[in-house]
Amino acid sequence: MPEPERSLLDLTVRELLDSVAARTPAPGGGGVAALVTAMAAGLTAMAARFGDGAVAARADELRATAAPLADQDAAAYGGFLEATRRPRDDPDRADAVARARQDTIAVPVVIADVAGEVAGLAADLVLNGNPNLRSDAAAAVHLAAGAAATAAELLAANVKGEQGVAERDRAREIAAAARVLTEQVDRE
Question: Which ranges carry the Cyclodeaminase/cyclohydrolase domain (predicted)?
Fold first, then answer.
């Protein structure tokens, strides 16, 4: 997979927003979902620091996992585009496309996994954490659930034939569970 010239994590917020809006294939939904997951984990960690240090530490770990997935997603999609641009008569094209497609499936599934866990941690903070930070924890639930749903949608778009079906179904289950958490938080 080709690596981006500059990590999305090294951009200013303005540069990141411009990069997302640019007429380029990446960063796209996957990179944004990864960054939103990292932001939701950051909110979760902040809310947890006012009560539960173990949850804060886990949220920090999840943030550290989610953030680089933005670059990995862009690289996976770039690798896929590169593979599909091979000449149709290239005998290695089909294998290259299949390998590259697997990368476009693997990254969103991790984003969904991390986002689902962040949503769960944040939902617990809404119910049991510091009441003064309930709205921050609730925001984290909503952001993480949206990121999980986005990752599931992108993953589904990359599935072809049997390749990636299990991952697609897993991401959809995670997104559905996160959606339930948003409904629970909204009732509080």
Answer: 12-161
pTM for the whole structure: 0.90
Contacts of residue 65, Cβ cutoff 8 Å, sequence gap at least 6: 110, 114
Q: What is the pLDDT along the chain (188 residues), one digit of tens a residue?
A: 444 478 999 999 999 999 999 998 888 899 999 999 999 999 999 999 998 789 999 999 999 999 999 999 999 999 999 999 999 999 999 999 999 999 999 999 999 999 999 999 999 999 999 999 999 999 999 999 999 999 999 888 888 878 788 888 888 889 888 988 889 888 87
Please check whether residue 175 is in contact with residue 142, taking contact to mean a CB–CB distance below 8 angstroms. no
Tokens (6 digits) for 57: 């530490």
Is 40 within the bounds of a domain? yes
Q: Which residue has the tokens 């990995």?
A: 72
Q: How far is it, in rounded angstroms, from Cα 146 to Cα 46?
A: 20
Joined together, the tokens standing for residue 48 give 């947890």
- Give me the number of domains the chain comprises: 1
Task: Supply the CATH number for residue 52's domain.
Answer: 1.20.120.680
